[in-house]
Structures are given as structure tokens and as C-alpha cells.
Amino acid sequence: xxxxxxxxxxxxxxxxxxxxxxxxxxxxxxxxxxxxxxxxxxxxxxxxxxxxxxxxxxxxxxxxxxxxxxxxxxxxxxxxxxxxxxxxxxxxxxxxxxxxxxxxxxxxxxxxxxxxxxxxxxxxxxxxxxxxxxxxxxxxxxxxxxxxxxxxxxxxxxxxxxxxxxxxxxxxxxxxxxxxxxxxxxxxxxxxxxxxxxxxxxxxxxxxxxxxxxxxxxxxxxxxxxxxxxxxxxxxxxxxxxxxxxxxxxxxxxxxxxxxxxxxxxxxxxxxxxxxxxxxxxxxxxxxxxxxx
Amino acid sequence: xxxxxxxxxxxxxxxxxxxxxxxxxxxxxxxxxxxxxxxxxxxxxxxxxxxxxxxxxxxxxxxxxxxxxxxxxxxxxxxxxxxxxxxxxxxxxxxxxxxxxxxxxxxxxxxxxxxxxxxxxxxxxxxxxxxxxxxxxxxxxxxxxxxxxxxxxxxxxxxxxxxxxxxxxxxxxxxxxxxxxxxxxxxxxxxxxxxx
Lengths: 293, 196
Prior knowledge:
The complex is a heterodimer. Chain A contains 1 helix and 23 strands. Chain A has one helix at about 1-15, and strands at about 20-25, 35-50, 50-60, 65-70, 75-80, 90-100, 100-115, 120-125, 130-135, 140-145, 150, 160-165, 170, 175-185, 185-200, 205-225, 225-230, 235-245, 250, 255-260, 265-270, 275-285, 290. Chain A has a 9-stranded parallel beta barrel. The longest helix of chain A is centred in the first third of the chain and has 15 residues, at about 1-15. Chain B is mainly alpha-helical. Chain B has a domain at about 50-75 and about 105-185. Helix content of chain B is about 60%, strand content about 0%. The interface between A and B is large, with 48 and 41 residues.
């Protein structure tokens, strides 16, 4: 009884505040494109096996409108705000799209959660977390002031992620990646690594690869922060590592040498196995660690 | 078809053999050649550092051009939506100033500096529309990048031929441009539709 009263009171309060729930759906191309934008709130997108886009929007007040358009293979979902108002509310979107759709999403002050969407994804956010999965198509992520979390399925999709003031956490992503952070740590775990280009200004990098391809290419640069790489026990690669002000720890054996008698810089070049791959790591201030265990 | 002489040799071969192997010029040509050489200014080969800077400049200009192309394409695609009702927030209290590098980007040429300034202007416009907390974070990040560039360029001034510092400095310039382009390109509350 008490619960029912509480729920009824909450509904009345929501109505009084002008909150409204909107549901819309439309037929969609199984490999079409879905475009979503939202300011403040949360967006959850899930891939399903229907050729249909469905959205459930929880609009916080009457001053917002959900625009839902479908044209050809493109479906657009947009939260439209009132003209000339300083927006204070938030809108939650729960969206289902055909599993193989490509997804393009932009949000401000809204968290993005994407599950089981297997087409290409282009996700951009300001002030919000991006959480998604990587399958066999490419994934491009840009985030300012927020974390990026990607759980992969060891697929073929390449990953390109840029983060300003936020960390990157990537697990079981594909073998090709380009990662940039200005301020934020990177933690990357991959089953197989082929090509990686990594740049960080302020942040630590930890990359662990269970296996690497014969044509391995790693190009990593860090300004302030430690760069740590864990490789499989055996690999064929030529290493070229240098630091201006930092140590080099190497589990493979060869020791680094000082680049100057009085300076703190170190350099290390050696070949492991046939030396077919190339690993190039440069750091200004920070330790570089490469290990095979 | 050529005839064979009694000696068993081709007449053409014999004619060739009769020519003098040493052709003497009518006069001594060397003084005139020497004078011509002396008139031509000798260009010193570009130093390794200079060559590297040209190469790096080309790289950065390519990044700038790419960033601009992306920016304008994106800008035009959202222009009809963003042109209306953008309520700019007050300009940031501490405007982001171009860094003054002691071994700095001015070395990359006027074209680069102009492009960078233009990109910075767009960045400032978009930055002003971001929520205050995010704006502060972005400014802090840009300041960090520019501080890093300052630090590297100051060190590079002491070790001008250090390839590690050259690479890291160029990488930092690229990070700066990338940040400017990314923020200019990113959505903001002002870029969302407000035409209800």
C-alpha cells in the first residue's frame, strides 16, 4: 500500500514537472545508418535482430521534443531543445537498432552505452562516459572529459580513440588501433596485436598482448608518463626505444645504454627472433618497460 | 652490307682507326670555364637540422590541412542547425594564448602559423559554448600540451640535433592541432538543435 502511494506520488510529481515518455519506431534497413544526438542524460543503444529502430525517450519536461526521422537507410533520433532557453533538464534515450547498423552518436553531458551493435560506430561525447563493444567493423571514438571503455570480441574491426581528460580502457579489441590521450591513462589488453599507434601527453600506458603478428608495428610516444608493454614470450621484432629522461626496463635481456654521460636519457636497440616486426617507443619523461612475461 | 678488305678488316673499322684519338681544342678553354664557375654562387648544402625541420613542417602542414578539411566539412554539415540560437557563454577568463616556443612553431613557417591561428580561433568559439567545467578541463589540457612543447623546445634549443626531441616536439605540435581540431569538431550544447 505504502509502495503504491509512493509510486502514485512520484507519477504525479513527474506529471506536474511536465515529464513525458515518448515511444517511436520505424522500419529500418538491416545495414542502415542510425544517427543519435542528445544533450544531458543517458543514451543506451542495443542491437537486435529486427529490421526496426525503436526508441523510448524519457523527456524531463514539455519544453523538449523528440525528433524521429527515417529516410532511406538513415534513421535520425534527435532531442530538440527549446529555443532561447538555458537547458537544465535531462533526457534518457533507450534505443534498439538492427544489429548490423552503423551508428553515429553525439552527446553532451550524457553517458553513452552501446551493446551488440556490429556495424561501424562513430561516437563522440563531451562530458560523459562512452562504453561500447568492438566487433568486426571499425570504431571511432572521441571524448572530452570522460572515460572510454571498450570491450571487444577479438574481431577484425580497427579502433581509433581520442580522449582529452579521460582514460581509455580497452579489452579484447582487434589487432589494429590508434590511440591518443592528452590527460588520461590507457589500459589495453588484446589477444593479438598487429598495428598500434599510441600517443599520450600526460598519462600512463599499459598494453598487454597475448600474441603478435609477424608484421607487428608499434609506434608509441609519451611526453609525461610511463609506457609499459607486455608481449608474448617469443616474438620476432626489432626494438628501438629511447627516453630523454627515464629508465628502460627490458625483460628480453639486452641492457639499455646512456645516451649521454651526464644526462638521464637511455636508448635500447635490439632484435628478437627474426626481427620482422618493428617496435618503436619514445618517451620524454617516464619509464619504458617491455616484458615478455 | 660492308665489304671486307684484303687485310680481312671492315673498311669502316679502318677509317675509324685512322682518326686521331686526341682531339685538341682550338684554344685553351679552361680559363673561361673557371671564370664561369667563379660567377656562379655556391649553395651550401642544407644542414641536417634544417632538412629535418622542412620535413617536419611538411608533416604538420599536412595535419593542419587535414584538420581544416574535416572541420569545414563537419561545420558545413551542421551549419543549418547550429546557426540558430547558439547562446555563447562568456568568454573564458583566461584566454588560451599561443605558446611562445624558444625553438618553436614559428620555425615551421608563416603558412603553418596562420593555419594554427585560424584553427585556434575556431577552437575558442566552440570552447565558449562548452559547459564551464568541461571548458576548464579542455583549457587545462591545452595548457599541458603547450607547456610540454615549451619544455621540449627549450631543451631542444640546447640540443638542436637531438632526433628524439625533434620527434617528440613535432608529435606535441600535432597533439595540439589535433586537440584544437577535435574540440572545434565536437558537439556542444550549442551545436544541438534548439528550434523547438
